[in-house]
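Chain A, query sequence.
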Amino acid sequence: MSAFPFGSVQAQSAQTTPKEIIQQFCDSASAAYEKHRSPALLTLDRQAEALNQAYTKQHPGEKPPFGDGVPLSSSRGDAANCRIKRIRRVAQGVEAELEYSLPGEKNVEEAQK
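Chain A, predicted structure.
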């Protein structure tokens, strides 16, 4: 999850709502990541995560092979799915809390069900 201040809403078009502006941000971030993603890359990502988990179980306390993060998946800001979790007005304008996930991942609410 990430929280981003979106500055003054007054600077934006009077007809565009804060939610629309934030959704445009999510859509553009997702589109930028999408062109670098393929089913094969996602499969490799999941395999690397599984390898890390298995290694951690077999070698507690040791750094797993991808201990610094699986390439292209360690930065949640570049994840394929961006969802607006919360929007609130603050003195500086609007603050949004965003949730990022990869395709097939459950978000926090789905995982708790």
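Confidence is low (pLDDT under 50) at residues 8-12, 74-78. The radius of gyration is 18 Å.
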